[in-house]
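Schema walk-through. Below, the input block comes first and the output block second. Nothing else is stored per chain. Lengths vary across the set, and this one has 137 residues.
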Amino acid sequence: MPYSAEIVGLPALLGDFAAIPGELDAILELSATDAINLLRINLATYPAPRSYPRTGNLASGWHDAEQLWVSHSFAFDASITNYTEYGPYVQGPGSQAPIHQGYWRTTQDVLTAQEPYAIVMFAAALIQLVDKLGGGK
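--- output ---
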């Protein structure tokens, strides 16, 4: 004797699971963009003026930097690069000139300082995704 059962909501649930990879990529890319924009702002912030002239090129380089986003199976890479020629001597960890050490923050200093905020951004985005897939708004 054949037996059949209907699981209410199963087709919608399966559709939600099928949407996870695309939804996850989209929400992670958006969060990565937000986190990189936070880094951009902080990297482009100059310390108090000193005796040498400033062109603003380093800050412009961060504002104009192209963002790279690459999604992998269970990870992603998000980055920006400032191509200002002298940037590594001003903000580069390991390449910062002695005159700038302790005065200009390196890219690593900024990344370390902003990491907790980026983590909160990603956590909030993942909570939104879970809520959305769980039928929330």
